[in-house]
Fold this protein.
Amino acid sequence: MKLQIIPLNGQNRRHKRQAIGLLVENPNMWPAAEIARAVINTLLAPNRVCLCAVDGNDNVVGIVGGLPDYDGFVWEMHPLVVKKTHQGHGIGRRLVRALEREAGARGALTIILGTDDMDSATSLSDVNLYDNTGGRIANMTCRKRHAYRFYKKCGYRAIGVIPDANGPGKPDILMGKRISKRRSQLATLTPVEGGKS
């Protein structure tokens, strides 16, 4: 499949309309066109990134957004959407890699994302996440299809959880990945013995 990853041009009405349509295909997240339009407009603001996958017929079949935070050292990936008829062909992975390159070129060290568990797809749903939080995250499993598996294959790891983010027992699983090739300065720090400096 011929595919090109390009920045979404806000002046290209057709591409913008198609990007909004991709979000509306997921009514659990974006139940109305007005909400989807607001998301796309936010991604087109200065210092944000919106990349789209365009097929050989010049149709947008996927988008990924990047939002800088923490003085640009950390970026949030949101949203990542691939047209349902085009899923399973590597488009999502290509969009993730393209965002990682773009954010890295702008000075990002880490990319984070949230992946909601709305339908008890993981072992983090329907449990008390305030008890043994770290252990539950470390031993998390998928009960059925969930985006966690996709992001894990892309190199992302669970780094936290927001209990009840989507209602009782429905958490948002936070994932992250270091994208900088620079060595972490943490590796050069010497530990402070006995808690004294």
User: Anything to note?
Assistant: The chain has a mean pLDDT of 91. The beta strands are 3-7, 49-55, 60-69, 74-82, 110-116, 157-162, 172-178. Residues 91-105 form the longest helix (15 residues).
